[in-house]
Please model this.
Amino acid sequence: MTARRTLGALLLVATSLALGCRPAMRAPAPGRAAAPVELAALEGTSWILAAWGDGAPAASTPRVSLRYAAGRFEGRSGCNRYTAPVEQRSGGGAIAVGAIAVTRMMCAEPAAGIEQRFLAALGRARASERQDGRLGIATVGADGRPETLVFTAEPTAP
Model:
């Protein structure tokens, strides 16, 4: 009986760890999970960073943006503009981001810190997903744990 309980506990721990390795944008509503999204589906929409991978809300100023077009992510990273090649990988919204090019304007705090944090996270992007109209870019945090940057669609001008 003790061996069975030990085995059961080990299976429970292993299952919990396996399920916990995939970042979620937020707790999904019943029956609604984050769905992988292909990069081509993002074309034509600009996105604004709403929350960091640790769940902390992103500041509205400076605004961090992301847009996908013709195999590249581009936008504002806080105070500078950036561009980076991105390619779709096989399987469930998997992506790979290449070397990020950034303009070189001097940035004061807090913009410099926000920019550094965002560019580091974007360089570690592994997948894209959508839930409830939001875009998630799944990354690996500096500590090696999975995180998801959450973006909302930028409102379009009338």
User: Anything to note?
Assistant: The longest strand covers residues 81-88. The longest helix spans residues 2-20. Helices lie at 2-20, 111-123.
